[in-house]
Amino acid sequence: MFDSLSDKLEIVFKKLRGAGKLSEKNIKDSLREVRSALLEADVNFKVARQFVKSVEEKAIGTEVTKSIDPGQQIIKIVYDELKQLLGGNSSPLAPIDKSPTVYMICGLQGSGKTTLAGKLALKAKRENKKPLLVAADIYRPAAVKQLKVLADSIAVEHFFVENKKPQEICKDALEYARKNFIDLVIIDTAGRLHVDEELMQELKEIKKIANPDELLLVADSMTGQDAVNISEKFNQEINITGVVLSKLDGDARGGAALSIRQVTGCPIKLASVGEKLSDLEVFHPERLASRILGMGDIVSLVEKAEKTLDLETTKKLQEKIMKSKFDFEDFLEQMVQIKKMGPLDSLMGMIPGAGKALKGIKVDEKDVNRMLAIIQSMTKEERQNPRLIDGSRKKRIATGSGNSVQAVNQLLKQFQTMQKMFNNMSKLKFKGMPKGISFS
């Protein structure tokens, strides 16, 4: 989402590094370009102006450390200000420490409220809590059914009463929750195409009945400044406790994420980073600031790996690589695991320096899926011993995977290259390598 902004900021910092030393003039010139980059990223103009002013005040008069070049000093100041702009520190959700704890979700139609309800329910279930999804959107066609499908997909309870108003449904749901030892009630409220008085009045009445521990607004990151304006309006009317940014994995300019906290004063608590119910993350200002500045987010990458990858399988794979026994079976197993972690472009953005190193190279999910289809069309014997794959087998594999023989040949050639690389790694002697460091 922040690729364009990151690229423009990198150009600014590169100029400063070439300047040799900081001066009031080159700081002001650089920050003028930073302000322009922020505005192009759809950051609120008042927020952009205040941000640049804060950076300028800290940068001008800063004692230049000889061991750090000017560009790095400005990056540090910009990083600190970006982190503050995004909220400083992460803001946790209200703890599920009473029965029932209530989370109420609101937002405009299409912002991702119902999907968020499902994601919160899955999160609670994984924490050994008992959630209840309440369908309080009786206006949107299929809204109740959508929530029921989500509830069934993760095996949690769903609550809805026919021919009742949303307020009455919520009242009945809370009574049901108290009698059935529900830990968390998640209320999916109705949205509209725009903010209107009728919507706000209904939300106020539900809020009064439910007395929610969290009143979360879902803001669509793809709508830019509209998301900021909507957040401000909802906060004025019903005093939201936090914002959840949906579609943060999209290709919009990202200005909403950089403006909402400053404009509304409400913390961004969560970020929805994909369509799967597991694609929900705590919003960490410092990590997003790091990614915007091209410094990666290795902490989030490691957390994703710990949650997704089978570490025992990964360890066995490492041992096979070092013994030169890596085959298509291993490759397939690892690729399936990595794909569970999320879009490959997103993962690359978390690796420090990867954005610059892979500049202009697009990680195409279709190519990955094509490669997996070819491997899955092989027999187990062929995956374990690719040398068996002759001309007739290539034709069968190509037909079975919906690809050409040329595509099969290309994959086999790439795999041979990979095997040679791993074979060379296994032969190397790493003198002075600290204990605990391994290659995988």
Helical fraction equals 55-70%
Q: Which CATH class of the largest domain applies here?
A: Alpha Beta
The CATH architecture designation of the largest domain is 3-Layer(aba) Sandwich
Characterize the main sheet: 8 strands, mixed
Q: Which stretches of 5+ consecutive residues score pLDDT under 50?
A: 296-302, 351-362, 428-440
General description of the model:
The protein has helices at 3-19, 24-40, 45-59, 70-85, 113-126, 143-153, 166-179, 197-210, 225-238, 255-264, 285-292, 298-308, 311-322, 328-340, 344-350, 354-357, 365-376, 380-384, 391-401, 405-427; strands spanning 101-106, 131-136, 157-159, 184-189, 214-220, 242-246, 268-272, 280-282. It is flat. Helix 19 (391-401) packs across helix 20. The model is unreliable at 296-302, 351-362 and 428-440 (pLDDT under 50). It folds into 3 domains: 3-85, Four Helix Bundle (Hemerythrin (Met), subunit A), CATH 1.20.120; 101-295, P-loop containing nucleotide triphosphate hydrolases (Rossmann fold), CATH 3.40.50.300; 301-427, Signal recognition particle, SRP54 subunit, M-domain (434 Repressor (Amino-terminal Domain), Orthogonal Bundle). It has 20 helices and 8 strands. With 440 residues, the chain is an alpha/beta fold.
